[in-house]
Batch of 2 targets.
Target 1
Amino acid sequence: MKAAVMTEVGKPLEILDVDIDDPQSREVVVSVKASGLCHSDLHTLKTDFGWPVPLVLGHEAAGVVEEVGSLVTSVKVGDRVVGNLISSCGECSRCRQGYPTMCSNPDAIRRPAGDRPRYSMNGETVTQIGDIGGFAEKILVHERNVVKVDDAVPFDRAALLGCGVITGIGAVKNVAKVQLGDTVAVIGCGGVGLNTVQGAALAGARRIIAIDLQPTKLDLARRFGATDVINSGTEDDVVGRVREIASEGGVDHAFEVIGLEATAQLAVELTRVGGGTYVIGKVKPGSGVQLSADDLLRGHKKLKGLFMGYTIADLDIPLYADLYQQGRLNLDDLVSETISLDQINEGYEKLESGEIARSVVVFD
Ligand SMILES: [Zn+2]
Ligand SMILES: [Zn+2]
């Protein structure tokens, strides 16, 4: 099968022929129909995070189940599914408490070391990012790595439910637990940030303040429910402006969705007494975000890191698909353009330039 393969950090992806194994007992083969371009894959492409190469990127995939292993019970051939990159065993204490993103044994659903690889090229093992590897004509994954969705959800929309949507809305719904009437600030309005804004709107936040450098993204943020926007490139006093809009010294919930130390620290400053700061962006390892003694003692502030919005994929993905079908969740405006697999490097360049929310690779 054809797949976009990273052969070296910093080099463009190459479209190569990759051999795919047969599904084992609880594995499924999915014919991929759409696969979104997410920022975190761009980071993987540019920065060495230690991923073994060759590596198939892409972790926002949707498609149709083509083949199932003998013990698969959750899906059947012909089902429309979304890839779920939150690998979890389902049996450890965190899984049973309802926190699969904190699973202590995600290896349980991977093939053991020494077993035949799922993918290979000329005998060499090819790794799939996030246990998905969605920039390929097919994916071979554990059944826990897919979630069935309604056939009426278009593939290019469904794909986004695999990462950007669940991360953004999950942060609001599952982690911050935003209430009707709360105030919210979101720093960074890419694919995840727009969904954080949208989640806050669904929760009934009173003020939703979107902050970004790009006017086009701020316009988009308004479409997703932002009540106020701040261009941090032209506004000298972002903190003052937020305090003015939210009143009472800041917002109840400040979300950082870029992954920079400075903006994470800004999010702390935007948070009012008793409020919470949530760092969704992938801040560089080794850097830090601080709560001062004042923030803690007089501020009663909380600072929280999170991964994938504490999503429980088989509950949350069908929920968001349902809200989309009812016209209450906006996925349409997230898809800036659809491209072919051959155009993937250009797609990443556009994503990097910040001019678009999401490109989605579609397969015939
Ligand atoms: Zn992602
Ligand atoms: Zn677990």
Note: The chain has a mean pLDDT of 95.
Target 2
Amino acid sequence: MLIKIFTARNSNALKLPPGPKKLPLIGNLPQMRRPELPHHHMSGLAKTYGPIYHLRVGELTLVVLTTPDIAEEVLRTHEINFAQKPLSLSTETMMMDKNSSFMYAPYGEYWRQLRKVCVLELLSVKRVRSFQSIREDEMRNLVQFVRSSLGRPLNLTDEISSCLTAIISKAAFGESYKHQEEYLSALKEGIELASGFSIADFFPSIRILRYISGRKWSSVRQRCDKISSRILNDHKRRREVLSIQEVGSAKEDFVDVLPRIQESNELGFHLTDNDIKSVILEFFGGGTDTSSVTAEWAMSELLKNPQVMTKAQAEVREALKGKELAQDLDLQGLKYLKSVIKETLRLHPPTPLVPREATKACKIKGYDIPPKSRVLIHVGAIGKDPNYWKDPERFEPGRFLESSIDFIGMNYHFLPFGSGRRVCPGIAFAMANVELLLALLLYHFDWALPNGQTPEELDMTEDFKATVSRKRDLYVIATPHSLGHD
Ligand code: HEM
């Protein structure tokens, strides 16, 4: 502990980025005292301290970056040095074992091999396409459910979330897996516990804090672990009775693919059962809420901006004229709808603070960044930087129509999926789900707010948990649109 305090004092010799005054021992902990919306709080601090600033919270150095040019310096110029994710205590406790994680694996051979499996096998365009029938079934159910609401107020937040979670869980576990509800409820609890900062993260050398905070997380982890072990073992047993042709076919779910790779030993190291369970857990953790809140914010913005809604509906209805529900829809031509999704991700990135860790000491914009500093790339503030975006607060999908700006991490003023080697590997999967869902909702229904609420009155207050969602669920009234045969 003394060593840590000494190091903290000594760090004054470095030229650190600016930041608020620090109290002895706790540093800027008062500034971190559970602000309800940390991303707004951090944008506010940038107004006082500039586009790169630092906070010292207990033993932790936190560096916040809020402009595209600084993000580029970190994510491109110093990419390898920042290719590491910081491990919070909650995440560490939720892991199956300390060495089993893809999302938090140190940048190195283990991560590289798992990343290859994710990109080439689990989340490839071919695999994402192979889940089309799952998407169609779930979305058909959603459309039928909305239709049966008969003009009554409908909780669209819940419906979007159930539909997208069902798709991801069927892609992971197979068509009808009996333990998925149990798994999802344990995972939801884990995600809620893991969101936000824990005091034990700020004082890692005080072991008792780790013990106290860790207890509640480890019980959730044990539940997830027990269920996923059961799921994995059932899949392994089923594999034993599958024919050779069926093994390795496009019909495999995620829990089929990973044991096949485990058996083949093609990675150069042994993939353990814990590795497999961690990948699945992280896909759920990283893929479910992010996709749901994107679709939910898109519908909210469309309701708030009726002219945009009309334009998006006109495009979708023209392109999908006379098509059956979700069958074989080609969404390639839906340029305006794609722009709506991009604009939604610009204004409402589900994870506005993307965390990375400095492996070694380096300089950014002339400031010293000590090793092990936690760096937060504020992609929320970056997406609203007035030097890069005209009328940044306005929802204006047209700005993406004639532009080549994409979200794959090459445009540093638009980073909803991060950038570089750690960029989100789930982009194709997320987009396939969100695009189809929005296309069908716009195609089949006209939308209004309940109780005579006007678009201006729609409350857009945010809530910050693991992702930034709406604080209040979105209620809507759906009216079937001429059964889609106009
Ligand atoms: C709209 C939906 C989504 C958004 C906005 C999103 C956003 C992100 C972001 C910002 C990162 C960090 C990137 C970085 O550090 O540069 C990330 C990483 C990750 N995402 Fe996503 N994500 C989405 C959907 C998904 C889906 C559907 C999956 C999988 C089923 C997924 C799996 C992952 C994984 C495994 C990582 C860690 C990658 C690594 O560390 O190498 N995400 N995502």
Note: Residues 102-103, 115, 282-283, 286-287, 290-291, 294, 350-351, 354, 416-419, 422-426, 429-430 surround protoporphyrin IX containing FE (CB under 6 Å).
